[in-house]
Amino acid sequence: MVPDISLGGRTYGLLAYLYGPGRRDEHLDPHLVASWQPELAPDPGRDPEATLKQLQERLDLPVQAVPEHRRPKRHVWHCPVRTAPGDRRLSDAEWAEVARRVVHATGIAEEGDEQACRWIAVRHAEDHIHIVATLKRQDGRSPRRHDDFNRAQAECRAIEADFGLRQLNPGDGTAAKRPTSAERAKAERTGRTATSRELLRDHVRQAVAGAADETEFFRRLTEAGVRIDQRLAPSGDVLGYKVALPGDRNRHGEPIWFPGSRLAPDLSLPKIRRRFVRDGEPDEQAAELRPRPSGAAPARARRAAADLVDTVPSVLDEANEAEAGTHLSGMGEVLDALAQTSPASPRQQTIEAARAFERATRWHSRAERVDHRAVRSAARGIVRAGTALGRGEDGGATAMLLSTLVLATMAVARWHAARQHAQQAAAAHQAAQHLRAAYQTAATTPMRAMREHGRRLSTPDRHRHSDTVETVLPGQTDDLRRERGFDALLATLDHAQRAGHNPEALLHRAVAHRELDTAESVTDVLVWRMRRLGNLPAHEPRPRTTAKITKQQPRTASVHTATAAPPRAPAHPERQPRR
Question: C-alpha angle with apex 104: 142 to 86, nearest 5 degrees?
């Protein structure tokens, strides 16, 4: 059950929306389910003689009764409360109880207080109600609604338990501010895929990813087409910033600005500065932990990032919360860098994964941050290398990094769950789902080429490599054969042997390197681990077929043509391409 509190200044406008047809005619049978005093609250939905104006005047009466200078500028308190998808349908009586419990918990109208604020609860859909209150008590005082959002959240958790509804994770006050319903409606009207707040948050996080200093950070924002307004001290130093989307204006034609701290708690300028390389320290490119096969810069940067991301689970096992926080922040930057440089096909899922994972990088911890330049340098390398192609070594390296990120993200989810960080664990699980979808898209071409290679192996070679799998993973070969990636695993063992590796030893390393319990496809994980640990190419080139080139016969003016003789079979079978 999700409450969403906001303030406004027009009671009649909100009532007109609640009792109207909705923006897509989705409002059905709008009516009151509860109010501060039923006999005083007319219901325009069920009473044909009642009007919206009458209801608005009754609600606003305590506000209008006080002198104008004491009236709050935004006197309308609005709290939609929605059940989770899959929850049972609540009756009007149950929704009435929900409304009374929420206004009591938030201080709007405590039970037994006859001088409390006036309020109503309108239902116009099966899964939610809208609670509307005016913020002057009937004795002229203001309600005590300090921390009303968190109090509403806590009460909704209790209501879920009492009503047998789906139990949502409790909030911890570290989440980024959610878009308002007005922002979502505006995004729909303008045809945007997300609200201005969400798009700007993406732009800022992507500009931060791997940036060396704030000069580069602001330059990246400008290159992304974002409007920037810097707050300067008399000395000229930058104290803060706010951003806006081009063309995004309010009713007065002014740009709609969002300070960084309103986009997310960790996007204020002071907190962004803590990520940058310290003065006097060298600017690092993405770390190259060992010699790499030749290939384009995006592929090399992704392989280097995969090496560093692969260390995150082991760091989490041993690190304190400060160290874990810095590594998760760096891992989030890798995701943001990947989101802006991914091939077109997996890009949207990668963007969604980055959006979800950023919630997993914040929780209550006052420990000092430690240096995490290594992981940040991986993000920097990805950004500097540019957009990767969706094919060849670039495509394979993208799939390799995504496969590594899936398991690392699952490790992050387990780490948060063990510390009762419910929101962060859920966010990491959600990010892993998006990463799996992005991996499936990115891995389609390279895995198909590897499977074809595996199927072309001679029967003795297939038997030999299958025996290797049985030796390393006794009793599991039959299960692995049923996975689509088994032929790709045999191809990788064959490739490792031709590259001078001991296939059995390399497979042992891949199996022992990290757990496989959270892998949806064990063979896929082992393929990418072996190729990364053995410095094998991430893409298997397709074999070139031999085609006989013949000269084109000149056309004749005659409309009659002789019947072509069937082609003669070659004297020798076509040779297989060299592997």
Answer: 130
